[in-house]
Design brief:
6-stranded parallel sheet; WalR-like; Response regulator transcription factor; DNA-binding; 6 strands; Tscrpt_reg_LuxR_C; single chain; Arc Repressor Mutant, subunit A; alpha/beta; transcription
Length: 222
């Protein structure tokens, strides 16, 4: 797994690099100090996943993520956003831009490695603690590009697909969804794939956003 690290703090990048290089099957293919460097290195270093700090000079992590997600040559490159929760108001914007998940920076080293594996495998990953509060904050000023079109799109979902979407929004993976609903993991995976197709969602992270912004799931219920 080829990992690109983007953070404007040299010490943070060095610590992350040592951690990633110590993990079997992972290698660091580049380090970026700005968002623009991150986009350029994602193109040239053939990274599979970018660990992206949200706050960086020149081009912030949100815009860098947006450029990576919009680049057809970078299709399949995943972005894991990092934030200092107490000061960062832009986590959901990063998810809307194309990030497949986010973690707060005080995450334990082992959890960061597991997060990289999870996102690289195509699963969404959201730090469980701040997720509901962050979404509640964002919903006070919903994205006009998403809000308004989503409720109608949800009408295309079957009752079972709505149940699955609720569980995705609560952070359950396919195996957990299968256990909750009494399905096989393959059937749960099929439901998630169909929901993504019907809602034109890039990944599970965007399904989470849609579920909250449509009102299907509320931060309090999650």
């Amino acid at each position: 797994m080829r990992v690109l690290l983007a953070d404007d703090q040299t010490l943070v990048r060095s610590a992350f690099a040592m951690l990633v290089e110590s993990a079997p099957g992972m290698t660091v293919v580049g380090e970026a100090a700005t968002g623009r460097q991150a986009v350029e290195l994602a193109r040239t270093a053939r990274a599979d996943l970018v660990v992206m700090d949200i706050r960086m000079p020149d081009l912030d992590g949100i815009e860098a993520t947006r450029l990576i997600a919009a680049d057809e040559d970078l299709a399949g490159v995943k972005v894991l956003a990092l934030t200092t929760y107490d000061t960062d108001e832009h986590v959901m914007a990063a998810l809307r831009a194309g990030a497949s998940g986010f973690l707060v920076k005080d995450t334990r080293p082992a959890d960061l490695l597991e997060a990289i594996r999870t996102v690289a495998a195509g699963e969404a990953l959201l730090s469980p603690g701040p997720t509901a509060r962050l979404i509640a904050r964002v919903l006070r000023t919903p994205d006009p590009c998403v809000s308004g079109s989503v409720p109608g799109a949800l009408e295309s979902l079957s009752d079972r697909e709505r149940q699955v979407l609720v569980l995705v929004a609560r952070g359950q993976n396919n195996t957990e969804i299968a256990d909750t609903l009494g399905l096989s993991p393959l059937t749960a995976k099929t439901h998630v794939s169909r929901i993504m197709g019907k809602l034109a969602a890039r990944d599970r992270a965007q399904l989470v956003i849609i579920a909250y912004e449509s009102g299907l799931v509320s931060p309090k219920s999650a």
